[in-house]
Structure prediction request, 601 residues.
Amino acid sequence: MGEHVEADNAEAIITRIEHKSRKIESLLKQYKPVEALKTALEGSPPKTRDERCKSANWIVVHSALMAIKDVDLMFSSLDPEYYDILMKYLYRGLSTGDRPTCDQCLRIHEKLTQRAGLGCILRALSDTVNTV
Amino acid sequence: MFHQVGCFVVTDFNYENKMTVEEFRGYLGYNNEIDRYLIGMRVLAVDDDPTCLKLLDGLLRKCQNQEKARKCMWFAHDNAVFAVCWIKCKRQIEMAAIAVHQFADCITCHAWSPDQSMVALCPNNNEVHIYKLVEENWERIHVLQKHDQIIVGIDWSKSSNRIVTVSHDRNSYVWNEEGSLWVPTLVILRLNRAALCVQWSPKGNKFAVGSGAKTVCICYYEQENNWWVSKLIRKRHDSSVTSVAWHPNNVLIATTSTDGKCRVFSTFIKGVDAGKPKKSGSGSLDAKFGEQIVQLDLSFCWAFGVKWSPSGNSLAYVGHNSMIYFVDQVGPSPLAQSVVLRDLPLRDVMFVSEKLVIGVGFDCNPMVFAADGTGLWSFVRYLDEKKAASSSGRYGSQFTEAFGKFYGSSKQGTSNDKGRAGVHDNCINCIVPLKKSESTKMTSFSTSGLDGKMVIWDLKNQEDLVEYL
Prediction:
């Protein structure tokens, strides 16, 4: 598949993520958690192998995920194109073992599976190349 | 025959005196619209009493299974006469599955004889069982025993009537019918890993074997030495070759692999294939044996089940990530489409026509995919309607309970009490076309799976799909 990102490009990605994180913080302050989540999921750098980039993006997605209070409302305004990437982050969240994170991820996982089907889970689990 | 889907409203009648059935019929006969309510009719029943509705539900279900019904039923509940007129309630959708037979506990693969009177299958062991349909019963007429391990691929050549089998024991046998016996000939594949799949070429003079040794063996018959020679395509594959498919030109071959890629190679063999390889829309003019024509990087996980369309212009294959890939204009600049599946992954596909593909897999229910006028492929529906109806909106009963425990709350009580009520109970891993002769359109095919059943399907009664055939 495509070339993986070089180390110096990783710095550029991290800068972009930091910029994204500030935008998300402001969205969260405005009580727009769904917008925040969309911004966090957008431009996720799955093609990079750099763990720092992945971790940086995960932190940003995590903050948006934890702010979601009404899961059904979130899905009514989230486009289906985000389902697969969201599922990957949910599994990352579940793997942390942290109680509040896992609770939230599980709650969202239930609704996401209902909406997107088992195929979404399959795609999150079977893709070992584009990981989050 | 009208195809209009109308809506018939039935409401709670309240009559002083009960009507006789004749009178009721007369009442309805007044309305000449009766003949319009045909296949696909939906009924909206309105009643303030839930018991009536429940009874009505039962009636309608019973009615569904009857061939022709010009039924008029009515019954009374308290003072109300609750009447239903069910006009020509021919079952809305004809079942696509026309025959089912349980051959074994589990079937690994199967293949049909050229005249389709016999089927050869592997019942998940090292034997091939050949069954013949004798007066509505399947009788086992041959057992072919030669392999040491499980047989994972069987193909029966239409042109030469030879059977080829491949097994995890790294061997392949070509079986020739001599009188009433099947005589095996060992083919030395030179593999150091299991063979995984096999297919005869369209002309029946070559066959291809995909293996766990990351190679594809192309075997052909050498007249002088009276044996089958194996030529290996060693390069390019990074992992096991899970399926092989011959292009109609008898030279190109497509493969899928657990490295996620689908590749097309040339298998031109001097002396076996005439002249130089011809350009036929795909493939280069002078491709040597083993030369890769195209590599498709659409999947990031295991790929299975590649097949060419009847013309050889398109191909389709599936990924273990619940995706199906369609590639048109296979060649230097192919047009690829990925279709996302909602449910479980597929294992095998088959082209019914240029615009219709059937996929089978872990959902135990064949999936229909069709291309519209612009060439855009999409999922149409499941073929097994009974199953589809019971699992619509929910994702299979066996998972519902598991998820219930997972989420810490009991979900949906008894959920689908029908369970896996469709034709297949377990993963379908093999789909084979059934074509009477070269001239007729193909409408029927057979599937076999881990449940040990073989099901024969026919699409000619599926009205919504006829346009694609």
Observations:
- The longest strand of chain B covers residues 137-145.
- The two ends of chain B are 20 Å apart (CA to CA).
- Chain B touches chain A at residues 297, 300-302, 319-323, 340-345, 395-396, 399, 403, 406-407 (CB under 8 Å).
